[in-house]
Amino acid sequence: MQITVTVNGAEYTRDVEPRLLLVHFLRDELGLTGTHWGCDTSNCGVCVVLLDGLPAKSCTVLAVMADGHEVRTVEGLAGTDGSDGLDPVQRAFSDMHGLQCGFCTPGMLLTSRALLDRNPDPSEAEIREAISGQVCRCTGYENIVRAVRAAAERAGTVTS
Amino acid sequence: MTTHAADTTPMGFGSMRRKEDARFLRGKGRYLDDIVLPGMLHAAILRSPHAHARIVSVDTSAAEAHPKVTAVITGETLTGLGLAWMPTLSHDVQAVLATDKVRFQGQEVAFVVAEDRYAARDALALIEVEYEPLPAVVDATRALDPDAPVIRDDLHKTDNHIFDWEAGDAAATDEVFATADVVAECDLLYPRCHPAPMETCGSIASMDPVSGKLTVYTTTQAPHAHRTVYALVAGIPEHKIQVIAPDIGGGFGNKVGIYPGYVCAVVGSIVTGRPVKWVEDRSENLMSTSFARDYHMHGEIAATKDGTLLGVRVKVLADHGAFNNTAQPSKMPAGLFHVFSGSYDLKAAHCAVTGVYTDKCPGGVAYACSFRITEAVYLIERLVDVLARDQGWDPAELRMRNLVRPEQFPYRTALGWEYDSGNYPQTLRKALDLAGYAELRREQAERRARGELMGIGVSFFTEAVGAGPRKHMDILGLGMADGAELRVHPTGKAVLRLSCMTQGQGHQTTFAQIVAEELGISPDDIEVVQGDTDQTPFGLGTYGSRSTPVSGAATAMVARKVRERARIVASAMLEVAPSDLEFAKGRFHVKGDPAASATMAEIAMAAHSDLELPEGVEGHLDATCVYNPPNLTYPCGAYVCVVDVDPGTGQVAVRRFVAVDDCGVRINPMIVEGQIHGGLADGIGMALMEVLAFDADGNHLGASFMDYLLPTALECPSWELGETVTPSPHHPIGAKGVGESATVGSPPAVVNAVLDAIGVRDADMPLTPAQVWRSMQGRPLRTDVAVT
Is the overall model pTM greater than 0.90, yes or no? Predict the structure, then answer.
């Protein structure tokens, strides 16, 4: 099937098998390997991307379902204007040591971005709720929560 | 309590942002599955649906006819190459692809190589295997029954016994028990669980048919050990093998071993002449790669009537699965389990461990266990609580009374270990104070009066990490030393090459900080190279919390060698004797004349210049080092967990968790705290959620993340950390290692808290709502087998 998907602001048209998963479309067809794969069952969330601005587990979305939609991956999080400027969430994850092995990080960053877009001042409980569909084996979540709070506290620099 | 990253880069130890973050934050990490080689093929493995069955026939003709399939490899193929079986890390063999029988559900039967990953999976369904099912050995406690089916007939065995092993003085221990006022005993299961890193295991093998060189990109925590094993298994000369560990998406011990898929990928590349990638899916990860624990323990603890602990003895039945492939020092079939006398000053202790085969996946040493110290700490910390409960003693006071005292270090335990340093009472006191222990007990009494179930659990652990002295510790004959190479470039920037391999621990930052501390070169100016066996010195890798104790020591020592070379160069530059120079803040200066000095960058340039050096002194500024640890290091910690239990559902909520760790000198406190946070979450997971259980037929009941439950941000509280610092006296920078401390120390604190809440003497992990509720009814479950 031919599909056209807007990924990080650019349109891509490809012929794909109907069964192709969005995560494999992004990784194998477009070479965007920042989106990871972890479990097949929608439990771990390392494959989270933003689909029309909302977090979606790309291992449970067929590429054809993304036809005509907008996808944002971790590669589109830092300044899409070509600058090296990091999103405040990215900067805060580094400042607060919210990442270790880095495998869950892209999904965590995107969920955090989406959370702050709809709730610029989330409580700790709201942050934990927002990332509760994603597993991190390294950080015990503490510093991820702190990072999202830190990013929120830098309000005014928040962009979407 | 909260440490933030420093705004500036410290010239040595201190919190700083990690150098590795830049690529991970941008999605520019390079993990195994991100690597695409020209002409690369994709592989998938057909696995056994049975736990125990004889293979009658394997028909691959339909799979081979698939237009996108390049090769189908079976046990028969491998038999022809002499590769159907591979040696394990524990003096056994493991089937690469099954030939005679399958011995656990999920065992590897056939390997398909195809043009893409979907086609490889499609072709699996085209392979027809006829099995003759056999009765399975699932319950380890029945494995030695006279009528138990024999699993390892390939070894001509007549039973499922692997080994008996003892440590400690049995007679002295029995004597202590015979004369003790009080004895408490308890059956304890540390259930089979799994490290489950977010990235599964995989590899890409690429055999160059012209040069004969094999390149293996693989998810390994021990690239050099893997290279040597490939050489020994496949007969490929070791200099023609390059193992490259790319970024690793978490390891926790899961990525120490060599799995059949790795070997098959090598064979696949040899057969097809193209690179072959194999990446397991999550079910394969949970069903067929290294599990952890599975220790059935009967423990006893003896004490005087006034609360002085005297001795501990334990009998262990160890379920090793279908092949004995535990990864620990070769002379120690139960790993370092015999540190189970823990943090207490005991007269005697003894253990007897029996290993058995069952029809389950091989493994046993994984998941941040420090070679089975998880099991040891769980044993002693549960026994102390059981004794306290039986006698009506306060569990914190009982611990405080019996801890090894500071003046007893170095302390030789009843089991022969020499603990290097610690101030255990100070560490426990700090944790109790941070938690507000007395106030918590008052609150608990009030809540109990209202019918609420609040529990307080304490644990104190002593870790033994940094394996290890090569005289005592080797893996497959390879002594557990690690190398480091440091080269300072002419402009004063440096490259450090290490044998260990980071999986998220932040080695690129921490090890640069060690060099910075020793030489006064900014960590930002030091490149840390790991993971590529052609680029790094030999060493056994990263597991058992050994990177900082061993490779960290090697780094400090190699930096000191470079510093002494720099001293000689500086003496030529400043025209004074080397002994007239002092080193401070990155420069050598003449004693009594601080103005006469040279920075490390100036010295580096001079070392590469036409400066005349003293006779016999080589130019350039570099050095190598192999560090053979004189002893293990012994981190410790005191943990306090507070839980609330819903009396109607048995649901546990962890309200607070206080952790005071002493890991000696902290190189990057921010990273140390992160390591502890992660281990504490592991403790919640193991204590409350995680188990690999099996039904009577050997069906795996935890083969996906829908069944194998991991803690999320909702199950974890906001961790409350504290620290004490007693440097290791024998480590060059006094650091002890911390990666596994919290995973080792936290499960008993959680279990002790839950059982304290519900007033139950003992019940096995995981304390799921069902297990808690059943325990409250006096009918605790056996958690490792299916509920019937």
Answer: yes
